[in-house]
Design goal:
about 325 residues; 7-stranded mixed beta sheet; 9 strands; alpha+beta; binds 3,4-dihydroxyphenylalanine; two-stranded antiparallel ribbon; single chain; BirA Bifunctional Protein, domain 2
């Protein structure tokens, strides 16, 4: 019996070494530990062994079984998982993972954010589905105001709209925070526009708001001029402020910058801005006699188009990898 055990052991060790895939591993298991396996058969013979020898033989058999089990356990980690190894052709060239790029709008937004953060502005956020109150009423745009036509929106219900601008974040911020307030609020906005080369029913804006004591239009012009110089990396960037109208600012202005391209120079509208209207401050419980503020709203997409020489705004939202890979 001992001799037999030694023989099976030697054979077992040799065959365990030869296991090289999931199938040979399973064959090995059946051959040794299966119902009619060598080890199982030896156990069956234990009954015929003389009683005094049984403990010793039993011990040897147990060791033999452990040996087989160990061999299988060792190979299992390599060959079990659904014989994966057999199906992978290791001689094939590897697949190069595609590295993602930041979207041009993201790039510009991040740049704007960095500049304003250096100037001491925090980033605020608001919902894209807004109430009529935050999007219009609180911004001094009552139900019958003609300015609503300019920003015709997509209504969710009587009271809920897709925000037409980031200005409602001004209101939310001032309700939550007493002056001094210095924030920018980047985000997506919606308008009922038919898409063409220069219109998209959704686009991106950055709102800015500064409220404190003794804040003047001079501060507005200084901060926005420095901002534009940094955004376009041009210390002598020419800017001009034109009188304009927004219901939530008084006075209001439009800021243009001089844009040079290969086709020559032209004034390009950069943003709308103004001194926060006293009605707006009063509406959020800030005393307009004590505090004043300035604000601006700027489209991000058009800056990205100019910066990267893209002529159609729809290009930004087509998700065409051939385009997006270039940035
Ligand atoms: N909300 C305006 C728009 O979408 C832009 C704007 C103009 C925002 C003047 C302002 C501002 O905060 O002061 O057309």
């Amino acid at each position: 019996m001992k001799e037999q055990i030694e023989k099976v052991k030697a054979q077992l060790l040799q065959e365990a070494d030869a296991i090289n895939d999931a199938k040979s591993m399973e064959d090995f298991r059946v051959r040794y530990l299966g119902k009619k396996g060598h080890v199982t058969e030896l156990f069956r013979g234990l009954g015929q062994v003389e009683p005094q020898q049984r403990p010793e033989i039993g011990k040897l058999l147990n060791e033999l079984r452990s040996l087989a089990e160990q061999a299988i356990a060792e190979k299992k980690s390599r060959y079990s998982a659904a014989s994966r190894e057999d199906q992978i052709d290791l001689t094939l060239p590897g697949r190069i993972p595609r590295i993602g790029r930041k979207h041009p709008v993201t790039l510009v937004r991040e740049e704007i954010k960095t500049i304003f953060e250096r100037l001491g502005f925090a980033v605020a956020d608001g919902p894209e589905v807004e109430t009529d109150y935050y999007n219009f009423e609180a911004l001094n745009i009552p139900k019958t105001h003609p300015a609503r036509d300019m920003q015709d929106t997509l209504y969710i219900s009587e009271e809920l709209v897709l925000r037409t601008h980031t200005s409602p974040v001004q209101i939310r911020t001032m309700l939550n925070q007493k002056p001094p307030v210095r924030i920018i609020a980047p985000g997506r906005v919606y308008r009922r526009d038919t898409p063409d080369a220069s219109h998209s029913p959704f686009f991106h804006q950055v709102e800015g708001l500064c409220v404190d004591e003794n804040v003047t239009m001079g501060d507005l012009k200084a901060v926005l001029s420095v901002f534009a110089q940094q955004l376009f990396h041009k210390k002598d960037l020419r800017a001009r402020f034109r009188p304009s109208f927004f219901p939530f600012t008084e006075p209001s202005a439009e800021m243009d910058i001089w844009w040079e391209s290969s086709r020559g120079g032209r004034w390009m509208e950069l943003l709308g801005c103004g001194m926060v209207h006293p009605n707006v401050l009063e509406g959020v419980g800030i005393d307009p006699e004590r505090y004043s503020g300035w604000a601006f709203g700027m489209g991000i997409d058009r800056i990205a188009l100019n910066k990267y020489g893209i002529s159609d705004i729809r290009t930004l939202f087509d998700n065409d990898m051939r385009v997006l890979r270039q940035f």
